[in-house]
Amino acid sequence: METAEKASLARAKKTQGKSTVRAIVKKALLVTVAFFLLVLFDANYNTFSALKDGMQAKGKWQAVFLSNGQIYFGHLSPYGMKYFVLKDAYYIQSSRVPAPAPQAEGAAPTETEEQPQFETRNELVKVTGDLHGPENAMFIPREQILFWQNLRSDSGIVRTGTSARN
Fold first, then answer.
1. What is the pTM of this model?
2. Among 86, 79, 160, which residue's Cα sits nearest to residue 125?
3. Same structural domain for residues 36 and 89?
4. pLDDT at site 103
5. The domain containing residue 74 runs over which residues?
6. Pair 18, 81 in one domain
7. Burial of 157 (0-12, 13-18, 19+ CB in 10 A)
8. Could you read off the pLDDT of 8-66 as tens digits, one per residue?
9. Distance CA 164, CA 46 (A)
10. pLDDT for position 55
11. Are 96 and 120 in contact (CB under 8 A)?
12. How many CA atoms lie within 13 A of 131 on its CB side?
């Protein structure tokens, strides 16, 4: 009987060895498929390159151009798969104001019937200063962003935004 038991144990070890090999092959196949799906996903959405670029641009200011024509300035970073978040957000508000009338040196101001001249003044406005009192973050759908640009440190917007934060 001893030989029958030994033969049975040998068969059990062989079966166990085959199932271990199958499990390893299944895991390797699963990891390979997951890797290729991840690569395919990244090729379509550039997720990892965007995150890497976002990490490199951390601390930089960006100009964000939206599909509705608006431009915002601040610190842009990915927020999940469908959004970006813009912190320390500003925008430029343009207004028309009467321009001072040109006068000759030494001449007294005169009343004229001419149309008043106007000039455009641009002001950098912090989003948190808007009437509805938003918090200091804008969540922008990914499909609404046409493009963004990193701003140089000598940009007037960066200087103004940095001095306003301090």
1. 0.56
2. 160
3. no
4. 63
5. 59-100+116-165
6. no
7. middle
8. 666 666 666 667 778 888 888 888 888 877 777 665 555 555 555 554 566 789 999 99
9. 34
10. 47
11. yes
12. 0
Residue with tokens 């300035």: 73
DSSP code for 130? S
Cα 85–128–141 angle (5° rounding)? 25
Residue 106 resides in a domain:
no
pLDDT digits (tens, 9 = 90+) for 61-101: 999 999 999 999 999 999 888 999 999 999 888 888 887 76
| Ordered DSSP codes for 5-73 | HHHHHHHHHHHHHHHHHHHHHHHHHHHHHHHHHHHHHHHHH-HHHHHHHHHHTTT--EEEEETTS-EEE
User: In terms of pLDDT, which residue wins out, 31 or 142?
Assistant: 142
Does residue 151 contact residue 73 with C-beta atoms inside 8 Å?
yes
